[in-house]
Amino acid sequence: MIQTLGDVANDATSIDIRPEVNILGVLKYLNYKPWYALAEYVDNSIASYLAMKNLTLNIEPLAIDIVIEPHDGGFISIKDNAYGISIADFPRAFKAAEVPPDTTGLSEFGMGMKSASSWFAQEWRVRTSTLGDPLLRSVTFDLDSIVQNNTAILPIQLAPASPHAHYTIIELSKLNHVPQGRTLTKIRTHLASIYRKFLRSGDLTLKFNGEKIAFPEVEVLTARKHDEPNGPDLIWRIDDIEVELSPGKKIRGFVGIRAKGSTSEAGFALFRRGRVIQGSHDETYRPVEIFGRSTTHVYQRLFGEFEFEGFGVSHTKDVIDWMGYEDSFLASLRDELRSRDKNILEQAAKYRHKFLDIDERRKIESDSKLVASVVEKNLAHTVNSTRETPVDVGALSAMLDARPVALNSNLQPVNSTFEVRTNDDIWRVSIEAVLDDLNSEWIDIGSAVADVDPVSGELLRRLHVRISFAHPFVRRFSSPSGDSNQIVLAIGTAIGIAASLGQEANLRPKALVRLLNTVLLGSFTIQGE
């Protein structure tokens, strides 16, 4: 039989939770996020598993199963197959702020299970069986009763168990904080992010509401250097970064460029003892010294992971204690990323993909509809007032081309079409945003062909404005968030309308500019404001 602390059955039937009883009543006011509160249980399970792994090599991987039921006041259960809580450990495990004898692992403050359980719920129960112990032990905490009655002694319920069994089950009820809706999805993604190293190694299997959790690895950019169009493809990741800030204080990790940018998930994850402390999922660490402003390409492309050695963390284990070294680290890291043969900061800032990704397309599609709706509301007023203003100038140099537009499309263009009735005619305007034709002109305006509407018999003017979002001009000055899309679409549409009106009046180029200013003022100002 394996020798463990639980070899000898102990018939203790109670535990003393003094003198910190009153602490439990205020723990529900901690500033926890639900994924970090649940992480306290996972930390304890991992610490218990690693202790058991040191005793024997013949054990299965750690399995943790978390279930959250948001209905009827809420219920949470956390089950694991780790070593369990031995009877020798009971006095410390159930007493707040009792530091464990070994503080080098993930369980270090003696508060995790107690603080997370008291934050989540008014009632919680722990059932545990340790390897080699033939007894199952259960302890129930009713916080309202404990605080009101100043309870110091809690009973331990005993039941027979297999000496080969080893597990802990924690059940929380009467929840103070009931995770539901989108929070459940965020819990799943954050837990996968926080424990990605343990999941990668195969030491941990983690389930949430019956589904196995996996961390989606980031695809690294493989591409030529931004200034070497004919150069070889390179993998844009640096793996051997190491910064020693003082004896015993070291940070090591990697930095890469995402193949597909993300304004929410790019950034650094900061680890300690194999577990993410800062930078989980969409709460990544993005210091301005490295990433710049949120509108830059670096902000949405750069990612990385760093393991901290010799640093402390907050008691909720969601903030690194930099101990005054943050600025020094960032300066060293910035120099490191710029000094390599592959200047990863420059590449992240200046490299441009040939095609827009699907998220950019959705943004352009939405902005195209918005611009079209604004022009539709105001075009009749603008055209009518412009036609009523005489312009004494000569012929307009040809800028309108009725040639058919040929598309080489991997991403279908976005089209927004609307019809407006003016005093003299009907305008049928089509705004087309082209996403992938790098050889196209930035703007292409089809002649505003006038004919007779077959239904109404009225004069019909057709105008087609084609704007390329893959043009180098747009790609050079656009922001990663797509905030400039509406400006590009609005200016392009205004140029098309002005050119059409200018053709009608035979205007010279300088007059066309004045007309453009008039259209910009009229078509994009909501009447009545």
TrEMBL record:
Protein name: ATP-binding protein
Pfam families found in the cross-reference section: HATPase_c_3
Upper classification of the organism: Bacteria, Bacillati, Actinomycetota, Actinomycetes, Micrococcales
Keyword annotations from UniProtKB, A to Z: ATP-binding, Nucleotide-binding
Domain of life assignment: Bacteria
Gene Ontology molecular function terms on file: ATP binding
InterPro entries for the chain: HATPase_C_sf
